[in-house]
Amino acid sequence: MLGVTKLSNTDGDMDLRKRERRHPRPGYVLLEVTGAGICGTDIHILKGEYKVVPPVTVGHEVCGIVCEAGDGVDKALIGRRVVSETFFSTCRRCDYCRSGRPNMCAERKSIGTHADGAMAPFVEVPDFGLHPVPDWLSDAASSMAEPVACVMNSMMGQDAYVGPDNDVLVLGPGAIGLIAAQVAASCGAKVTVRGTDKDRPRLDVAEKLGFPVSNTSAALSDAAFDRVIECSGSAAGAADALRALRKGGHLVQMGIIGRDAQLPFDLICYKELTVTAGFASTPRAWARAMRLIWDKKVALEPLVSEVAPLQDWSALFKRSIAGQGLKFVFDPRLKPAA
Amino acid sequence: MSPHGVTMKALAIESVGRTKFCDVERRDAGPGEVEVRVARVGLCGSDLNTFRGLNPLVSLPRIPGHEIGGEIAVVGDGVDRCRVGDRVLVLPYTACGDCSSCRSGRPNACRHNQTLGVQRDGGLSTSIVVPAAKVMVCNHLSFDRLALVEPLTIGMHAARRAAVSVGEHVVVLGCGIIGLGAAAAAAAMGGRVVAVDVDDRKRDIALACGAERFVNSREDDLAKFAAELDDGRGPAVVIEAVGSDQTFADAVRLVAFAGRVVYIGYAKKPVSYETALFVMKELDIRGSRNATATDFAAVLSLVERGRYPMEKFVSVHYPFASAGQAFEDWAADPGSVTKILIDMVQ
Fold first, then answer.
1. Chain B partners of A165 at a C-beta cutoff of 8 Å?
2. Strand B7-15 and strand A327-330: pairing?
3. In which band, very low, low, confident or very high, does the pLDDT at B2 lie, cut at 50, 70 and 90?
4. Cβ distance B252 to B281 under 8 Å?
5. Is the ipTM of this complex over 0.90?
6. Closest Cα partner for A222 from A176, A165, A273?
7. What pLDDT shows up at residue A28?
8. Does the pLDDT at position A249 exceed 70?
9. Residue B151's closest CA among B178, B117, B122?
């Protein structure tokens, strides 16, 4: 089978390559992939900014149908439409694994970075990370369960970081930003979404979802928000976030800047800010995310910009990098246009 | 008689079951104070308890009323946060600043708190003088709405004490205005709310507040219903907004293992508990008293976003002249009322 494969950690060294279709090992299943989304991390991987273990098929946002079950796996799973957590394997012994934070495990292997991922017709994943998806949600939208889980990991600790007493600013109206905005609204917060001129079509989607929007061409008032969810992954965004927060405010850093950045760091002291972040997702975040999806508290369909066959990978990555939409998803079952 | 010889009309609860209009001294607003011309006063369940002799915090006679909407009549020296004519609501609490609650940033639970109309005379009078810091200017809200904010903050505080997370199941016991406010706040925080009452007349308004389900605990098996929530785990949160020994004990039985119970009500007698449940379930049991300025801001934010059925809360208006009658009517049929508003300017 052919998979979108990162061949080395060099910038741009990615191509559609022949990959082995394995039979699942004990405790694992094989999914026939029906949706595999492009994530901001995949773009960092393409550029060599996020290191992987090459050669590896990329893709970690996946919806699929269980088509083979390894030894010890409940055969009733076969035929089920599911989404999968990102973990391929973790040590299960370290303090992080044992305290519900396998995303911090030093031996963590994730699909799409350490183990072959979902941008291929089939992907092998462990059975414990599978979650059923509702019939009414499309494959492409279902594949966004993973970014929803990442948002839940970032926006909630023991309790939610945002509430009805909060004015919340979401910086960066990409898929993550628009999920974060919806989660914040579901927590009762008053939410504003901010983006650049280039983000205009994405801000239109934000408006359709019911959010007031603001543009980076207009000045941002200092100390106007209780919470900022930084999803732009830019130094300018992170700096704006620190300035826009009120005293005692909370910055949730979701974006990855990809390089060292110069920031007004002292504002964290002067304003006694709390800064937290989430790296990928945890099992608890997945449970919360799936509940949110089943309860229809996040709209995912409006975030799907395009569904395409794997053969269009290069064009789709380019459109994703250019920000010409929100979420681009591969459906490996689609045939390339003749 | 005041030094200036100026008096104004007020309604006092004179003794259990008896009210009386009286003339009281009208004090001038001093430095840092404002005089608020009272336009609307909501009657609270605690005012009703005072009238019925069931409020342990009150000594009689007392002018009741702490849910106040009005406008600024006079500003004292040094006040710059409001102007004459501004519409305001009143924060009816005090904070000593020195007790353990105040020192830990929870002035709503001040040990020496004196709520208007409870530990000191309240709003059922032509005007009141309060520190300027105790009013919030909201010129875009009607007097009715201003008077409704304070009772809604009590439920908001309880939902925030419960730290309701999006997707969690929340059972709210009692659909008076306090329970309804807790239900609406919990729903706004993403909770999946089951509102419980013994009176079917509360069903529509509970659903309008964002509850997914209404359970009449007199007719339906609440324990069974709650046990089935969240795929058999039970509700992560139970908020008690009735104040009976029965509901106090029910709350710890209904809640999920590792759940949170929040009490707003005052049980009127000692409660017998199966304390094993506290330990076995490793419960977080939290009291919730009054509300903070943050809760007021949160309620105002939700009011602005149309998250409360504000019109539905008001059961009836009485003119000030009939305020005594309002207490008698409410005492006769408590279930018929969500909120009585006294129109002070009529």
1. 160, 294-295, 297-298, 301
2. unpaired
3. very low
4. yes
5. no
6. A273
7. 98
8. yes
9. B178
What is d(CA A139, CA A300) in angstroms, rounded to the nearest whole number?
11
- Give me the residues of A, 262-291, that contact B with CB < 8 A: 288, 291
Q: Per-residue DSSP letters for B276-345?
A: HHHHHTT-EEEE--S--HHHHHHHHHHHHTT-S-HHHHEEEEEEGGGHHHHHHHHHH-GGG-SEEEEETT
Whole-number Å distance between alpha carbons of A182 and A176: 10
* Token pair for B192: 């999946």
Residue A314 CB: number of other CB atoms within 10 A? Answer: 13
- Whether residues B166 and A165 touch (CB distance < 8 A) is answered with no
Closest approach of chain A CAs to the CA of B298, in angstroms?
A: 4
Distance CA B205, CA A26 (A): 54
Q: How many residues are listed for chain B in this entry?
A: 346
Cα distances from B141 to residues B69, B84, B86, B146, B206, in angstroms, run 9, 16, 11, 6, 23
Give CA–CA dist B42/B146, Å, rounded.
Answer: 10
pLDDT over 90, % of chain A: 95
User: What local confidence, expressed as pLDDT, does residue B1 receive?
Assistant: 38
pLDDT (tens digit, 9 = 90+) per residue, A130-151? Answer: 999 999 999 999 999 999 999 9
Instruction: Name which of A151, A165, A272, A298 to mutate to probe chain B: the one with the most chain B Cβ atoms within 10 A of its Cβ.
Output: A165
Give the C-alpha separation, B20 to A197, whole Å. 66
For B161, nearest residue in chain A (alpha carbons): A159
How does pLDDT run across A262-283, given as a tens digit for each residue?
A: 999 999 999 999 999 999 999 9
